[in-house]
């Protein structure tokens, strides 16, 4: 077992620096790893624009094939091709872009809703078939029924584990941590691919129908994100359906927005909670939020809501959806529950909150330990046998789960039905609902443990939250259920199947919540107080303890139960539970798994001690940088020998006095942009002092510079250069992001962190202290009114887009007229 | 009338640069206005650390009394006093701070809820008394009743107008635009003072009870914010209740969080919609949001919810709350309404959305024109007569409103009651509810126009949304009501009383919504379709058209109606209406008023043409800056002659070669910090080359450096310096924010804007291009794990706070042990 304090936020410390980079997780570029001689540390050592000096010792050659975890490029790189692209755009382009954006949001909504519906349909039908067969078999022999039930479950889970393990390894688990990381700016390999989507959907059906202690809600968030990411791909090149205007969203920035919509759609579809979906993204999933996104995600979830309703209505009609019908979507609807509350109920709510906080964080703690143990001991073998272990593990868990589900209720005596309730016991031939008869002999008997254990989990939740009958469950049944289910949930989350955590959390919480409710009704004797209400509050408390969501969970519960009167109680239980869980110092479950996987997620606020460090403490001592004009062969060498993804470009200016050179930072050039330039070759020039023809920028296509999702873009192998080409030069100024953010060396790291995290940067230059100040910008200076007053021509230009009217002839004669724009278009040579 | 395109976002252009600064609104510092000779433009011209050179011509002396609109300091200024304060802090300090933060959130919640309850109590009682007297008087004479009603209203409104005009001018209007500006970082003078709070509460009671077409919901947001801001003041110095630990929140950064909580609490109290309150802040009010804030605002609104419930229960019991009872809080509860919808209902929803978008934005347009006209012609006179005009205007509006409310229903014939409805007509002696009898002669008759016009507005909303009776209103009554009420609402918003916009918007929207509903029921003949539902959808559409809120409005409506089944319809009507309204190009009402008042609000995204400009285009050509060591008298002169609030401090380094000086930017020093230094005098030194004793920093108190709300802090008049003192020196390095954000001159303005807006800056230095690059920071470098691995001692320091153990003796002997920290504490001399 590794150090326990790894769970605490303050204690997140890898064993060594190398540790952080191991496992293919943090093979992040830093631009600062390798030598370049000491000369690099100060600007005076950089020797000029066409620095052909040897780049120092290249310590290792990085295999190009290995796909490491990289950051995403949320920054717009303002290089000449980008500016040229802007120049080409007419006004209608903007409208097309906007229309397409909304159309994609619509498609994401419809797609996610349909997928969610299909998953539900398949799960309900498979589970219905399973229970139907088992109950038929039970008439003849319990043992036979058990074997049938167990085999059915193990097979389903095995299919799920196989597809996840052998075909789509990224589809394992809940997917919410992965989506959260993606939206934080981390490009985990393969998490948003089509194969992951398939694995998630099929695997989810298998694991949920197979009776595991998992839900389908978490995986739906991942599913929605996958659908959104695939739509942003701009069609498929393989089937030759990739129009240029459709490829426009194939960049990290637009994709981030779409994936956010997808995640919202996933939650909205899972719980039929459209507003909850939007809030989930705001509170939990998204790291960057813009007001415009609120509106767009809202639209997406509205579409989801309507689509699911339409699909469910279609199933209600003539068409036969098999066992799908009463079950499926709305998890619980306790309209018949409590509609008033008394002030003394705050005490049990406090108790529930505390319980939820403690139990939720113990869940995280134990599950985290188990996950670390799995990584360290269970999965330590080499690739293929590790995969077999995973499948066998999943089958074993399925076997244990099935055995508990079937055998435990056998040990429980039957309870008498309330004669007023017509559906007690559940009529023969119905495979969902309350009051499961199981093996009970009498006509008016039901088995209370079987009602919650030997049932689909959606039904189990409904039954636990039901207010149909007081004392429906014996305390022993509830305690037994909680203990076994808690253990099952702990061991299940982490095996190689898609597994959501909402449903197990709700079930665990509802079990002890109902216990507290029973206590309350017997103590107070108040007939208005319902056990079901406490079950709901318990569910909320466990979720808040394990996941620490408050507002979004509150709205989701609101939308699920359709009962607003209990809102203050729900709010308080969530607050207490989260506070207690936070006090334990154990991380929320998703963050815990992110931390165990050593993914460099950037939280919103920096650590306190960051204020004691400065920017120059964080950057490494040396740095690989290019001069303005570099030899092609040299660039290729650097790319081959370094994994960095961004290289600063520095231009030297010989001043009057020969001995005193000054240099300036031009900006950062990205690795994949360099690869495109090397592959395309049109920017090569024979003479390093040649002046770049600005029209060259128009010969590139901006979409060439963007990487498709989970891909490296142009690969090093694709670049074939002759010796002659290798001896040519490239003026890197054209491809530099001229608006690179830079901080002075003495800025406190806390503020650097703020900047980096707040703007979603990938590279941040650390520069020497500024040589004086040219001016100060304040609020007034950048209010659009003021800027327009100063530069009325710019507004006009922006409106009529005379930028687009620039002649594209090689002479660029018209440029002289719009000098300012010409400058910013190509950059003065 | 001024230019119509001022309404469109693209057309927001002041007539001249001076225009922007006029009216005391944008007297913003820019640090860039005045000459300093040409030498300033380049760093080489700054002549050294103890630059005693004359500062050029000071063109105007700024009167110190005038309180101009400034920006707020959301940035932490990391100067030596701040670092010393950090060093003094023990670990428990952090817990006290946290506990206090939550305690304040609790108090804000309780305070806002209580205030909201009191306002409701007073409004209901005053309005109840009014209607009771009027109805009694109607028995004898209609004319007498009219005069009684009218006089009552005019007096109430006059009292409201007087208190607002003569006592608390900032309490006028809804207050939401002001709060929005405050949270954007603009310190509008006086908007969060105690007198404004009093004016808002008392004025709100008067204007709402006086029957004006205004609501009390908008003002409650402002009320909540005022309460929060006052709590952050850290007690009152006047009553000697100002413990030091309590003053800790007396800074712009912590106050922003508290005011956000207050705004949430206001919405939560107004609509009894706790989740809606949080969302309102996220979507509309707040410009900066942190995940931690979600939780804290959520807590505040939960407290509000429970407090109001408790207070209302207290009123239900023995205690006599007068006319308060059936009315008051929950505006509408249409649980008895429609619970299903059909696909063909999307068409009327589309129509309603379009109508709402068009009518909502016409409301904005006309109201904006009227407001401009008022400013230009009505209020153009000198101060005191302008104030009388405002009061007379308010009384006139009250007179017109009362006359319409009383006389229009007289022109309408009575309608027969449905005999099944027991409360039709409203029994005598009851002063609230549906089916107002008014002057109807028959026992089973009611006047439909009086039901919505001659009633409190809360009741009018309930009646319009009621599904009790089909065809309750004649189409003529609805059309008449809409037309007159729309006009009344347009002329009322903008007069000198506290006036919310939610209630008028809901009433306008509900009127045409109900019309569409009547059309639908008569066309489809579907008995399940309720007119009340359409009234609700209409209300939503008008709000979305006028205010453009979507998610928050949706949740508020959800919480108000306690009916989730219509969620998709509500979502669609909101989306359509917002889209249509946005297409008209007319700004949302709050933004429109912000724009008319010429407040430099920074929107989230910059204008498109910002990408064509660069940082050096935005900054002015010259800039006032200090050398590192400056003469006291010189600093005082600069402060007297400039309004700037931040001054860059530059240090010159004589290099080996005498002719070639280099200089570096140390950071920005703030005006109010300089004033504190000049007042306290302890940092003065006789010799400019003296080395600063680092213990000096401990003799300041950090709270001295923070400005109380709506105050200038230390004033120039307070500084009395002898000639000798004026000839002494100050080393400004101690008071400089060493972590000043700076951008290179060629960074595109779009990115500058992003940085400025995203981090909530007040000053941003524009510096020359960097002389090379020292390194690059990437994600990996600032992940806490990595930083801790590199600097294990820092983590330890942060935890045990050995910072706090630093000796405070003048010798500072212990400093050598913790060299790094000593450096960052004082800055190496």
Report on this model:
Two copies of one chain form a homodimer. By secondary structure, chain A is mainly alpha-helical. In chain A, 52% of the residues lie in helices and 6% in strands. Chain A has 29 helices and twelve strands. In chain A, the strands form five sheets. In chain A, strands 5-7-8 form a three-stranded mixed β-sheet. In chain A, strands 1-2 form a two-stranded antiparallel sheet. In chain A, strands 3-4 form a two-stranded antiparallel sheet. In chain A, strand 10, helix 25 (749-759) and strand 11 form a beta-alpha-beta unit. Mean pLDDT of chain A is 79; it is low at 1-66 and 798-829.
Offer a quick outline of the entry.
By secondary structure, chain A is mostly helical. Chain A is about 50% helix and about 5% strand.
Keywords:
homodimer; 829 residues; mainly alpha; Clc chloride channel; CBS-domain; three-stranded mixed beta sheet; two-stranded antiparallel ribbon; 52% helix; disordered C terminus
């Amino acid at each position: 077992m590794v150090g326990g304090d790894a769970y605490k936020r303050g204690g997140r410390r890898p064993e060594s620096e190398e540790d952080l980079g191991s496992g293919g997780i943090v093979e992040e570029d830093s631009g600062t790893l390798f030598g370049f001689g000491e000369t690099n540390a100060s600007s005076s050592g950089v020797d000029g624009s066409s620095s052909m000096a040897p780049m120092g010792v290249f310590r290792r050659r990085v295999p190009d094939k290995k796909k490491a975890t990289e950051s995403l490029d949320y920054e717009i790189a303002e290089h000449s091709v980008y500016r040229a692209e802007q120049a080409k755009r007419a006004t209608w382009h903007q409208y097309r872009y906007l229309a397409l954006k909304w159309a994609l949001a619509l498609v994401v909504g419809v797609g996610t809703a349909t997928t969610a519906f299909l998953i539900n349909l398949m799960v309900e039908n498979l589970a219905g078939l399973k229970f139907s067969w088992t109950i038929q078999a039970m008439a003849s022999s319990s043992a036979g029924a058990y074997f049938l039930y167990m085999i059915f479950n193990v097979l389903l889970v095995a299919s799920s584990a196989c597809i996840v393990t052998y075909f789509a390894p990224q589809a394992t688990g809940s997917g919410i941590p992965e989506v959260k990381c993606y939206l934080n700016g981390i490009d985990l390999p393969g998490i948003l691919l089509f194969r992951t989507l398939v694995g998630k959907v099929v695997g989810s059906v298998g694991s949920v129908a197979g009776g595991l202690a998992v839900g389908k809600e978490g995986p739906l968030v991942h599913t929605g994100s996958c659908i959104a990411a695939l739509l942003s791909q701009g069609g498929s090149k393989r089937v030759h359906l990739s129009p240029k205007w459709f490829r426009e969203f194939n960049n990290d920035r637009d994709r981030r927005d779409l994936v956010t919509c997808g995640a919202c759609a996933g939650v909205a579809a899972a719980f039929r909670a459209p507003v909850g979906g939007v809030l989930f993204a705001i509170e939990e999933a998204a790291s960057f939020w813009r007001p415009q996104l609120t509106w767009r995600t809202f639209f997406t979830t509205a579409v989801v809501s309507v689509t699911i309703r339409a699909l469910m209505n279609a199933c209600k009609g003539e068409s036969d959806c098999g066992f799908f019908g009463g079950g499926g979507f709305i998890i619980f609807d306790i309209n018949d529950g409590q509609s008033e509350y008394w002030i003394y109920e705050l005490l049990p709510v406090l108790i529930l909150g505390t319980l939820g906080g403690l139990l939720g964080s113990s869940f995280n703690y134990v599950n985290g330990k188990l996950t670390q143990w799995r990584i360290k001991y269970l999965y330590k073998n080499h690739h293929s046998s590790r995969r077999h272990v995973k499948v066998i593990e999943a089958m074993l868990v399925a076997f244990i789960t099935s055995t508990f589900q079937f055998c435990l209720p056998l040990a429980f005596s039957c309870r008498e039905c309330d004669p007023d309730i017509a559906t007690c016991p559940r009529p023969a031939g119905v495979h969902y609902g309350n009051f499961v008869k199981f093996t009970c002999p009498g006509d008016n008997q039901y088995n209370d443990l079987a009602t919650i254990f030997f049932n689909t989990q959606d039904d189990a939740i409904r039954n636990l939250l039901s207010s149909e009958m007081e004392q429906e469950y014996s305390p022993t049944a509830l305690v037994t259920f909680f203990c076994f289910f808690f253990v099952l949930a702990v061991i299940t989350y982490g095996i190689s199947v898609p597994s959501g955590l909402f449903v197990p959390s709700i079930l665990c919480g509802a079990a002890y919540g109902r216990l507290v409710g029973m206590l309350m009704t017997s103590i107070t004797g108040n007939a208005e107080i319902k056990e079901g209400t406490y079950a709901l509050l318990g569910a909320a408390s466990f979720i808040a303890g394990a996941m620490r969501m408050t507002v979004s969970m509150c709205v989701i519960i609101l939308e699920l139960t359709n009962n607003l009167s209990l809102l203050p109680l729900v709010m308080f239980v969530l607050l207490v539970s989260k506070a207690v869980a936070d006090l334990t110092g154990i991380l929320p479950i998703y963050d815990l798994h992110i931390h165990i996987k050593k993914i460099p997620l950037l939280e919103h606020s920096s650590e306190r001690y960051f204020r004691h460090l400065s920017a120059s403490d964080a950057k490494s001592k040396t740095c690989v940088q290019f001069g303005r004009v570099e030899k092609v062969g040299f660039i290729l060498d650097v790319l081959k020998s370094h994994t960095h993804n961004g290289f600063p470009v520095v231009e030297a200016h010989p001043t009057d006095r020969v001995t005193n050179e000054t240099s300036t930072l031009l900006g950062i050039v990205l690795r994949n942009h360099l690869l495109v330039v090397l592959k395309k070759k049109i920017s090569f020039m024979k003479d390093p002092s040649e002046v770049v023809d600005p029209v060259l920028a128009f010969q590139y296509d901006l979409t060439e510079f963007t990487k498709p999702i989970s891909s490296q873009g142009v690969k090093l192998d694709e670049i074939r250069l002759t010796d002659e080409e290798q001896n040519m030069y490239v003026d890197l100024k054209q491809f530099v992001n001229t608006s690179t953010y830079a901080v002075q060396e003495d800025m406190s790291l806390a503020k650097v962190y703020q900047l980096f995290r707040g703007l979603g940067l990938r590279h941040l230059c650390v520069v020497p202290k500024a040589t004086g100040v040219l001016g100060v910008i304040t609020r007034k200076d950048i209010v659009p009114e003021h800027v327009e007053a100063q530069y009325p021509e710019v507004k006009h230009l922006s409106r009529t887009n005379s930028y687009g009217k620039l002649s594209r002839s090689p002479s660029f004669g018209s440029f002289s007229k719009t000098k300012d724009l010409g400058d910013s278009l190509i950059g003065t040579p």
